[in-house]
Write a structure and sequence with these properties.
With 319 residues, the protein is mainly α. The protein has one domain. Helices cover 75% and strands 0% of the residues. Helix 13 runs antiparallel to helix 14 and helix 14 packs antiparallel against helix 16. The longest helix has 36 residues. It holds the Pfam family ArsP_1.
Length: 319
Amino acid sequence: MEVNLVRLLVEDVFGLDLASRVGGSLHFFIYDVIKIFILLSALIFLISWIQSYFPPERTRRILGSMHGYKANLTGALLGTVTPFCSCSSIPLFIGFTSSGLPLAVTFSFLISSPLVDLASMILLASVFNWSIALAYVVVGIILAVVGGTLIGKAQMEQYVEAFVTQHKVLELPGEQLTLRDRLAYARDQVSEIAQRVWLYVLLGVGVGAAIHNWIPADVITAAIGQDHWWSVPLAVLVGVPMYADIFGTLPIAEALVGKGVGIGTVLAFMMAVTALSLPSLIMLKKVVKAPLLALFFGIVIVGIMLIGYLFNSFSYLLL
């Protein structure tokens, strides 16, 4: 129904042929913008309502009672119910670290929160399929747990800025929220996140439409085709300077896969954009010192590239 309405809009209102580059690009742009914002609104509302049961104080208490891999896994899983970009995750990272949680747990959360969430899983499934979406979530959580564990074993607490560890966390009584309060919170989260990401969604869809209709497939595959060993590192290198939520990278990913780029290369690009964006690294530099930041960056970038190569090698099992 939605596809037909968009087709009618492009052909009858704008008078464009869908087979033309301009008409095809406009159809891609309108359809993906509508699809992403509908899914984004519905999913963020649901996830925020669930998140209202896990305020930072309660999350800290849950994590503080755990140790070892169980704590890291729980930190990573809690990151999946926080629909934040990499920059938005850093204030929570500061709060968790200042409350005395181990670095292993807080970094597992920091890696997982922008990289994997329930909304991204459903959006990935809508663009590709459920096998790829579930595999993406699993490897993202594994990367968060392994990355946090390695950082914890490095014992680099001395490289956390003093203002973080000396910051006093207020112990607030648990607020008894009514159903109306939770629904209002979820509504406000939808509005806040939509205002923050709408431009990146439009830019991402615009880039995706250009790739889909204007750049020949042979040009793209010659640069970052699945058969080239450098495609994954190049995708990561291109992704790191960018800043966008996963919602803005999905249209680009969809267009690249349609042009024959390997699914692992595309996922590596998405992971680099969401987990290692340059603005988030600049913010994190204010919180941790260079050796710890370098270790975090190195672990995540190596993990992303390994995941990219893994998906490229075994993508036939998921498609």
